[in-house]
Amino acid sequence: MDKLIVEWAEKLQPDHNTLTVIGDHADPLAGKLFQTGNKRFGTPAEGWNEYDERLQRGHYDCALVNGNHYPAAHQIVFVDEQKASTLERRQEQLTDVSAIVMVDEARQQVPAWLEEQLADRPAPLVCTLSEAENMVLPLLLNLLGTRVPALKTLILTGGKSERMGERKADLVYRSDGQTEAERLASICDELLPGSVHISVAEPGQEPVGNFPNLADRFPGLGAAGAIATAFLTDPNAAWLVLACDLPLLEKEQISALIEARASGKLATAYQLSSQRFPEPLVAIYEPKAYPRLLQFLAMGYACPRKVLINSDVKELVVENEAPFTNANTKEEREKVLSLLQ
Predict the structure, then answer these.
(1) Looking at the structure, do residues 55 and 131 belong to the same domain, yes or no?
(2) Mean pLDDT, 10 residues at a time, the chain of 341 residues
(3) Containing structural domain, residue 199
(4) Which of 29, 167, 235, 272 has the fewest beta carbons closer than 10 A?
(5) Is there a contact between 108 and 102 (Cβ–Cβ < 8 Å)?
(6) Which pTM was predicted?
(7) Where would I find the H helices in the chain?
(8) What contacts 3, CB < 8 A, 6 or more positions away?
(9) CB atoms within 10 A of CB 164
């Protein structure tokens, strides 16, 4: 089973960050180990508990678990005559069976007790061991594809705008009279109805239209604090994060970012061809970005770009950099206004 689990994990890995959970009946190891590249870490320290495991699992899209040792949320049952009694003893763990694999190619009969247990549930896929890779792996990929986190929107309006001298979110660049916060919120509400939230520095800040405010709960940490606040509000959602100092950014670029979203990555972000690093404030952050963002904050790094640079991120390289022009000063604002005329 362990060999099969590792093989399947390697096939899922290109699109879904996959963890394997295996075990044996030997004495526990005297310490905890992990390895990256050729560097191997170990400690004899005790005290590892279920919350340590949950923190580690949070970095992965799925886990393939050897059910002979540990339970899992969904099950693939392998029917083997030599292990028949062991399987029957574990029937209380069979809470959501997705597939049944017949190890003996000549036997196609599912055990009577298992048929009875599954009688009032959706019929699982049944196949032989030789068919399993071609039949069960697509089933797993489909299951993972239906578990893409919901996407919400965070418009950043809480900056101090010291160089501009007035709130950039309240500036108007077009003849329709919409402020930049209203314009971005309107675009995102059209693309992702009901998803828009406005990041504000203070709870009492005047709302933008009917969109809810998210008051910063990590004051003094800039955009990183605003993103962390969004995840604190809903850690199971992905967040489309947009700065309000990009007056040339249009629906086209936002829609393209949503279409290109790679939910298996930590984030999806634009990268300008003239720059080496991704743009952190026109980006989609997946739920797995939350613990990593907090870890960087704990180390004293309040820069979301640094998180993206040092993480597994999908980058959309763009040659046309005009839509990503920042307007942070009055001079930059006048230049943008001349382009829009």
Answers:
(1) yes
(2) 91 87 69 73 73 78 89 91 86 92 85 90 91 93 88 90 75 88 96 96 86 94 96 97 94 97 94 94 96 95 96 95 88 86 75
(3) 151-340
(4) 29
(5) yes
(6) 0.85
(7) 2-12, 50-57, 84-89, 112-117, 129-145, 180-191, 222-233, 251-259, 289-298, 304-309, 330-340
(8) none
(9) 17
